Amino acid sequence: MHFTDSKRPGGIDGNRITVIVHEKRTWIWIIPFSNGTTSVGYVGDPQFYNSLPKDPVELMRKLCDLNENTSERFKDEEMVMEPRSIEGYAISTKKLYGDGFVLCGNATEFLDPVFSSGVTFAMESGNRAAKLVTAFLNDKSVDWERDYTQYMLQGINTFRSYVTGWYDGSLHDIFFSKTTNPEIKQQICSVLAGYVWDLDNPFVKKHEQLLQTLSKVIRIESTIE
């Protein structure tokens, strides 16, 4: 949904993409555009919307009213794009290659809109596939399972742990912790920047285990404080 944005904050804050945790499994994006309009959207489980209006315009107005970060800013703003909803946007494929084809980009797996992982996978899978196809067409031996599927799944599964952590709340604990370890922050930022094949980074090599462990440690520390 795109709104006019006459109450956009000044300075750098007005130009930032903002992600807001509305509830544990429900979040909001606010993306400002240079033409003065701003994209606003809610992402949540289907049951979150059960008691809300079905009409798209009424639903969007109600959603904005639910959170203090959007209620005042967009209360009287004009909708310059009709609200739309998408259900079940995340999907996996069973096979990344076959006789005469190889899947690249979002065709391989679309994870989640909050981390912009689609750009990473589009570039990496396209580059990887092009090199393997070139080798294949030049009658060189290509192990598609090892050199393409297993390689891509390393990155996909790493990103999946972070997406899952976002929705189960463990990543909230880490992102919004009052204490920050600079080394851990750098390692996690590296993952989110797309370095999901860097096995020298412990938050890539043991992505699922370390995220959950770190979240638990932060929760324990917060109760002691």
Q: What separation lies between the terminal Cα atoms?
A: 41 Å
Order of strands in the sheet with most strands: 1-4-3-2
Mean model confidence by pLDDT: 89
Give the strand tally: 8
Rg result: 21 Å
Number of domains: 2
Overall structural class, as computed from helix and strand content, comes to alpha+beta
Number of helices: 8
State the helical fraction.
40-55%
The coarse overall form would be globular
The description of the largest β-sheet is:
4 strands, antiparallel
Q: Topology as H/E string? A: EEEEHHEEEEHHHHHH
Strand content bin? 5-15%
Unreliable spans are: none
Short précis:
The protein has 225 residues and is α+β, with helices and mostly antiparallel strands. The chain contains 8 helices and 8 strands, in the order ββββααββββαααααα. Strand 6 and strand 7 (101-102) form a beta hairpin.
Detailed description of the structure:
This protein folds into 2 domains: about 1-75, no CATH class; about 90-225, no CATH class. The protein is globular. The protein has a 4-stranded antiparallel beta sheet with strand order 1-4-3-2, with no helix packed on it. A two-stranded antiparallel ribbon has the order 5-8. The chain has helices at about 55-65, 70-75, 115-135, 145-170, 170-175, 180-190, 200-205, 205-225, and strands spanning about 1-5, 20-25, 25-30, 35-45, 90, 95-100, 100, 110. Helix content is about 45%, strand content about 15%. With about 220 residues, the protein is α+β, with helices and mostly antiparallel strands. The protein contains 8 helices and 8 strands, in the order E-E-E-E-H-H-E-E-E-E-H-H-H-H-H-H.
